[in-house]
Specification:
74% helix
């Protein structure tokens, strides 16, 4: 089965899960979630809490995109001062939906554009999606180049991931941080990156690990 067929199957499964709760927006939400890495999608299909967290974020982004009051038109720009901070926050909310694991970097890249271009992105989800994908491609190419240059082994990467994960898990459950981190490190690297960049998903994963430890 090729990648396109894989994606189609995943899309159908996701749509079936999303449709009962969000009939009108099921198609749009499924499309947004399909931008995520394959392992993260597989995780969602197995874990309802992870799926719900992602759907909530996608809904929030759709809401932001549909609220014109938050995006002043050009003629209002003289009267309404749109601060870079406020733009950055709104943009981050939307970029974060794509769960690329690089939300902050991508938001920073997009904010380098003229303010008017950024306002356009906030009101045009299609354009935003294209820019996010382009920025992600750029970042991926950069990291591939860095990987080629460095001699870092997978073991070192896992160690680094483990350290980052441990410090976050320790805040949630200091008592079982070692055990929980060990359990989480058995997940796919793409899912781990996702946990590091998405606190809600991390909390869900930690709760599941706590439940497993209690049994």
């Amino acid at each position: 089965m090729n990648e396109e067929e894989d994606l189609e199957t995943l899309g159908e499964q996701l749509y079936t899960l999303i449709y009962p709760k969000h009939k009108e927006k099921a198609g749009k939400l499924t499309g947004m979630l399909l931008e995520l890495p394959g392992p993260v999608l597989s995780q969602m299909l197995q874990d309802e809490a992870t799926l719900n967290a992602a759907v909530e974020k996608a809904l929030r982004a759709l809401q932001l995109a549909q609220e014109p009051s938050k995006v002043p038109s050009c003629k209002d720009e003289d009267d309404v001062s749109v601060s870079s901070d406020s733009l950055g926050e709104q943009l981050f909310e939307l970029v974060d939906v794509y769960n690329t694991g690089h939300s902050q970097k991508i938001t920073g890249m997009l904010l380098e554009q003229h303010k008017e271009a950024v306002l356009n992105l906030l009101s045009d989800p299609k354009q935003l999606e294209e820019q996010v994908n382009f920025a992600l491609k750029t970042l991926t190419e950069q990291s591939v180049e860095e990987t080629d240059i460095s001699d870092t082994s997978d073991a070192d990467d896992t160690d680094r991931l483990g350290e980052k994960l441990f410090s976050l898990v320790e805040e949630l459950d200091p008592l079982h941080a070692n055990d929980i981190t060990g359990m989480l490190l058995e997940m796919e690297p793409a899912v781990l990156q996702q946990l590091l960049s998405d606190h809600t998903m991390l909390e869900v994963a930690v709760q599941k690990a706590q439940a497993a430890l209690d049994t």
